Amino acid sequence: MGEKEILLCVLLGANMVIVLVYLFINLFHRKRKSRSCMIRGTVMLLCPLAGPLFFAMAHLFYRLFFSAPVNLEDVVFSKERKRTFIHAEEDRERNLVPLEEAIEITDTDNLRGLMMNVVRGDIQKSLASIMLALNSEDTETAHYAASVLQDALNDFRANVQKQYNLIMEGKPEQLELAEALVDYMDQVLVQHVFTDMEQERYVGIMGEVCELLYNQDRARMTSARYEAVSLRFLELEDFTNSEKWCERAEYHFPNTLATYSCLLKLYFNSGQKRKFFEVIDELKHSSVVLDHEMLELVRVFQ
């Protein structure tokens, strides 16, 4: 055996001893994580000299530069709660005005900035205001409003169709989906952003879903939902369906402001004067707390 072979055997033997010593110290003496130690041992075994040298240099580098004690004098470990006050954006809030008024502004930069603020919020509740911007003299504002409105209405159409199909499949979560769909549809339909034909179609779907809720679990038809579906039919001058839901609301929620409001609006718009004044008298002698709208109505017709 030549000198090179002997030297190679000596290096391999020394490397094997280093690996064994490393595994013994870390696995049995220091009881470190076995997986990490085994991986390092395997690397040192497969890479004689280079492997041990690499890990030795890495350990030395860590000791020299990263093992210094951390100064915690300025760190406070306290469970005491701190209240942070964030100042209002006064410049921005001073410029906030209703979009209906902003459309009359001739300063196009301010109008476009206001449109950006509107669409950054919940546009589902601002579709009617965005629709007014279609008549703006600024063509860029009108074009942007049309694009935003079209996207929002397309999303509404797709979501309604998807949810309606799931409800009609009769899945276990059918009633939960129906509740969510009624509330979702009402916040858009109340703004009257569709054509008359399309508005009538979606109000019909809303009435169908409410009918399903009413027949299968009437407890899910809240006073607000009775009011919503009856008013949407009333806006279409569908007095028959509107009266049906008003009577159901009167039966299940007889002494609530929403029920009185629906009945009064129905009888007033359908020309049923006797029933209208009967409800007015009943409302005046009830214990229902009136809001500003109903209070003014009672004062006018008392």
Shape category = elongated
Task: Kindly report how far apart the N and C termini lie.
Answer: 122 Å
Largest sheet, described in full?
A: none
* Helix-strand pattern: HHHHHHHHHHHHHHH
Whole-angstrom Rg:
37 Å
Helix/strand-derived category reads mainly alpha
User: What share of residues is helical?
Assistant: over 70%
Beta-strand proportion:
under 5%
Extended strand count: 0
Mean pLDDT comes to: 79
The tally of helices reads 15
- Name the poorly predicted regions: none
Helix-strand blueprint:
Elements (H helix, E strand, L loop, with lengths): L2 H27 L4 H13 L3 H16 L24 H5 L4 H4 L5 H13 L6 H6 L6 H30 L5 H16 L6 H21 L6 H13 L3 H14 L4 H13 L3 H12 L7 H10 L1
Helix pairs in contact: 1-2, 2-3, 6-8, 8-9, 9-10, 9-11, 10-11, 11-12, 11-13, 12-13, 13-14
Q: What would the keywords be for this entry?
A:
single chain, about 300 residues, mainly alpha, about 0% strand, elongated
What does this molecule look like?
The protein has 302 residues and is mostly helical. It has helices spanning 3-29, 34-46, 50-65, 90-94, 99-102, 108-120, 127-132, 139-168, 174-189, 196-216, 223-235, 239-252, 257-269, 273-284, 292-301. It contains 15 helices and no strands. Helix 11 (223-235) packs parallel to helix 13. The mean pLDDT is 79.
Explain briefly what this protein structure is.
By secondary structure, the chain is mostly helical.
